[in-house]
Amino acid sequence: MANPPRYSAAALVAFAHALLARAGMDERLAADVASILVDGDLLGHTTHGLQLLSPYLREVDAGTMRSDGSPSVIARHTASELWDGNRLPGPWLVLRALDAAAAMARSHGTGSVSIRRSHHIACLAAYLKRATDRGLMMILTCSDPAVSSVAPFGAVTPVFTPNPIAAGIPTSGDPILLDISASLTTNGLTNRLYQEGRRLPHAWVQDHMGNATDDPAVLFGDPKGTLLPTGGLDAGHKGFALALLIEALTAGLSGHGRADPAEGWGATVYLQVIDPEAFGGLAQFARQTDWLAAACHAATPRPGVERVRLPGERGLAQFHRQQRAGVELYPGIMDGLRTWTERLGVPLPPTL
Known about the structure:
The protein is an alpha+beta fold. It has two domains: 9-184 and 228-284 and 312-344, Malate/L-lactate/L-sulpholactate dehydrogenase, NADPH binding domain (Ribosomal Protein S8, Chain: A, domain 1); 185-227, Wheat Germ Agglutinin (Isolectin 2), domain 1, CATH 3.30.60.50. The chain has helices at 9-22, 27-42, 53-62, 90-108, 125-132, 187-196, 232-235, 237-254, 282-298, 313-325, 333-344, and strands at residues 72-77, 80-84, 110-118, 137-143, 164-169, 176-181, 205-206, 212-213, 226-227, 267-274. A seven-stranded mixed sheet has the order 1-2-3-10-4-5-6. Strand 2, helix 4 (90-108) and strand 3 (110-118) form a beta-alpha-beta unit. The mean pLDDT is 97.
């Protein structure tokens, strides 16, 4: 079997940037969106990398993702701000919020930005290293108030989205990068597997009667099934509780969410940056996180496990490897973009 094509990460960023700009997105917004999408693929989050470029382009074309402008600042305090994202691209908004929260954290120890009416923000893990590289800890979470695909524990009626939450934790070496969700799987993965006629690795969804299954087709029938909360049928109260916390951080703090009319695919976002220097100091923070990292790595693995990995460790290794050797995109992504390349006059990026 022939080796799959690989692309330079820089070439993919330039390609995505060109498509978004030709579609009408302001250059500064397009640059950030392209960078975050490619970072998602570099980290191995292939459902939240360039897989999103075609639907983003459709949203730009339809005018449901704004192509230019700025967020409106609704409230501003010493260490917190509330923005209306005005349906601008999520990656650009989150990067601007990270800069604002980091500046507040440097002055006051912590800074938080809540964003209502953002568009989709792509891969949460793609933002984390941009904070930890500055010696800052970052917490990022979001929910899409226009979508419901996860049922509360003990129910079959969808109420939530997977409600991801991510955190970047500095150490003296590679950071710890958490990116988890309040559900056992995601809409992106189940949709991909359904389109490919494949099944999930485990029974991560339930049919409309509440029977757990590994068949994503139950999500697309009538009546539809739902994603199971983290913990599944046995301990899904944990994922249910996490989903409620994330709804409070996003919809609650922003004052905009599921209680309001749906506006289409998007996100309500909460971002917090913490400066360890304002507490025990970065050196002491890293002393503690280094100890934890070393203790986890030294822990005796159970049978069948080679070694303990920290959250984000495999993704960072893949990030560095693909930067050197080229990015291997998930099959079909480039084929799915051919219509846009032809329509917008942007050539496909060269392979390595």
